[in-house]
Amino acid sequence: MRFWIALYMAKLCEVLMKLVGRFFGFKGTCFPGKLALKICPDFLGRLAKPVKLIAVTGTDGKTTTCNLLIEGLQKCGMKVLANQTGTNILPGVAVAFMDGVTLGNKCKYEVGVIEIDERSAPHVFPRLRPTYLVVTNLFRDSLKRNAHPEFIFNILENSLPKDRKPEDMTIITNGDDVISSRLGEGFRRVCFGIDRMEGDTDHCQNIINDARICPCCHHPLTYDWVRYHHIGRAHCDHCGFKLPDIDYRAVQVDMDNMTMTVLHGGEETKVKLISNTVFNIYNQLTMMTVLHEITGSMEKVNTALESMKVTKARMTDRVVAGRKLITCVAKDSNAIACSLVFKYTAGEPGRKEVMLNIDEIFDNRDSYEILSWMYDCDFEFLNHPSIEKIIIGGKRCRDVRFRLLLAGVPEDRMTVCDREEDVWQYLSYAPGVDIYLLHDMYFISQAQADSIVAHVTEKLEGGTKA
Amino acid sequence: MIRIEILFPEVANLFGEPFNVKYLKQSLGEECEVIETALTETPAFPNGSVDLVYMGAMNESSQLLAINALKPYVEVMKTQIEAGKVFLFTGNAMEVLGTSITFDDKVEHPALGITPLRSRTDMMHRYNTLFDGNVKTEEGDIRIQGFKTTFSFSYGENEDHYFASSIRGCGINKQSTLEGYRIHNCIATYLVGPLLVLNPDLALYILKLAGVQAPVLAFEDRARECARIRAEVFAKEGTKYEL
User: Fold this and answer.
1) Measured distance CA(B19)–CA(B6) in Å, rounded
2) A379 and A418 inside one domain
3) pTM higher than 0.90, yes or no?
4) I need a labelling partner for B231 at 20 to 30 A (CA). Which of A72, A213, A433, B176 fits?
């Protein structure tokens, strides 16, 4: 009875909130989910679900992977339930499933793709009982919330529904990730991975590598090659521990022609790359693995890929007055995400000036952000001759400058600006110099980024006209 | 020339804390040798050839590995601490020196027993806070700022052996105003930052304890500029401490 009251109350609440939202300009929230869970704590568990349910979690790449998966499944003709517009914590997930059922609690979809915040796993997994659990990777994230990868690994491991038959749930993980690939022993596990690529090294080039010792005997791990941080091929010379075999193996990644070949079950399929960044190639491969597990056809996967693109929300590029203007999300307080973005920025061709807006805006409003993540992060990548100027915005701009000094960036290449929104004023706008804006991912940061881009565009176009 | 030994950097490397030593090395250049000792290696400090021994924050399972690796050297450590050797343990490395660590499984794991503190971990509740306090030294007080990001607190007497007295922010537990533990030049503190990078005066003090005459820090003017601004924000009445 509580369930039915919760269902009808929450659905009614959602309709009302949508109506009010139209007048006041806000989008759906997870409030109806909160309400339903208050009335019926097992609301999510009782909601009807699609037969095939894919839960996506992990540190980085969850949203992109979900977006690609939804598009891929839809292109394969499936009706997909997703929590794209909501949040990835319990109430948001509840709203997504509530939207997916009729008033009689009959599921309207055949497949579901649900992004789940790692820390919400203990609340969500037992009620969701996914058929596929996708773990993109496990890295250090916000130290305030996620502490360290072992903490998150244990949360996920302890949240797995141990009462299920191993064959009822497939765990899909990154086989190049020493940490996440060990999840779910006893369940059916499928791994994807990318063979050694150009740019991979024999030793870790990053400050942090959270898998330096063998998880079995604690002796140092030997890496055959390293891509970044603890992503690579590792084994233990002491006890024989090794990473799992790769079931979906990407080889011959060709960034020039934007293709790669995927080996699976003796089959070789050449596919197009939808992005030239390594982290997005992993996201693509994750999507391909899941899609093939569901459809059983690499041909269908390949067809689905045809017009697929990585969502532009996290990265935009345009040419204004002959200069590239690129924006890229560098998630604040996340050393790994920022390191990847810094490396990408340095590696792009051409002369550059970089605007760096990476303050933790909420903590810095009435407090002081914990700076530790900056010393986990590879600011050293920004010490690159192609980066001629770095304009650092925000309340902690001097802390960032100090970190960059320790990274070897000459002081005369840096300018500090206390207001993030004003960084554009310090660009040189010199001909032939591309402009990068690396910014945080909050809604407010995105709006600020849009405003900065508008200012830069106006300045560049004005300059051209003049 | 001073020698700094980093204990177990392959695991004791959370929260950017290795930069405590990197910063000292960057400051001293050729005048500083850094030795990194893995869990499976024999530490260098027992033979007396090291001026400063450092260990940083780590995950909970690594705390047990560190305790096991250091157990054979407890008596040497005690002797060296009595003799004034400089040890610096930051983050939850402090707990390794205590009497015991109790994790969520309620099992009390014996630690090295160098300090009388026992620690308790609650993995469901992470605690993040700023800290503003004073460190008493022979040359006067040093005002320090730092952060705590932890699942655990320590309990026990540290009234006569604290590292820093709090102006704001809690000590070794939420009820305490006394942070860390200090025996002669052995300093153990939950504070991270990295602590020495955030506090140039403390970094200089540690270097002097380790035997460096008139040390100068890398980019010291910029370090001081950041520290001054930080101190102002931390001292502001409206500044929120718990994050």
Assistant:
1) 11
2) yes
3) yes
4) B176
- A361 in a structural domain: yes
Across the strands, what pairs with B120?
B102, B153
Measuring CA to CA, which residue among B158, B161, B164, B160 is closest to residue B134? B164
**C-alpha–C-alpha distance, residues A165 and A428, integer Å:** 62
Look at residue B242 and tell me if it is in a domain.
no
Compute the nearest-CA separation of A452 from chain B (Å).
Answer: 26
A248-254 and A259-264 beta bridge pairing: antiparallel
A168–chain B Cβ distance below 8 A for any pair? no
Classify A321 as helix, strand or coil. Answer: coil
DSSP code, position B172: S
Give the range of the structural domain holding residue A242, as residue numbers without chain letter. 42-305
Q: Provide the terminal-to-terminal Cα distance of chain B, rounded to the nearest Å.
A: 41
Contact B135, B163 (CB under 8 A): yes
Among B8, B20, B126, which would you mutate to test the A interface (most chain A Cβ atoms within 10 Å of its Cβ)?
A: B126
* Structural element, H or E, at residue B179: strand B178-179
Same domain, A67 and A100: yes
CATH code for position A354: 3.90.190.20
Using CB atoms within 10 A of its CB, is residue A197 exposed (0-12), middle (13-18) or buried (19+)? Answer: middle
Of the candidates A150, A219, A366, the beta carbon closest to that of B240 is on: A366
**How many structural domains is chain A composed of?**
2
CB A150 to CB B192 under 8 A?
no
Contact B11 A372 (CB under 8 A): no
Q: Can you tell me the distance from the alpha carbon of A465 to that of B156, in angstroms, rounded to the nearest whole number?
A: 72
SS3 A286: helix
Which of B129, B131, B147, B148 to probe the A interface (max A CBs under 10 A)?
B147
> At CA B97, angle to CA B10 and CA B198, rounded to 5?
65
Q: What does the block give as tokens for B81? A: 């601490």
From chain B, the residues in CB contact with A208 under 8 A are 13
Please tell me the distance from the alpha carbon of residue A404 to that of residue A382, in angstroms, as a whole number. 8
Q: Tell me if A150 and B16 make a contact (CB, 8 A cut-off).
A: no
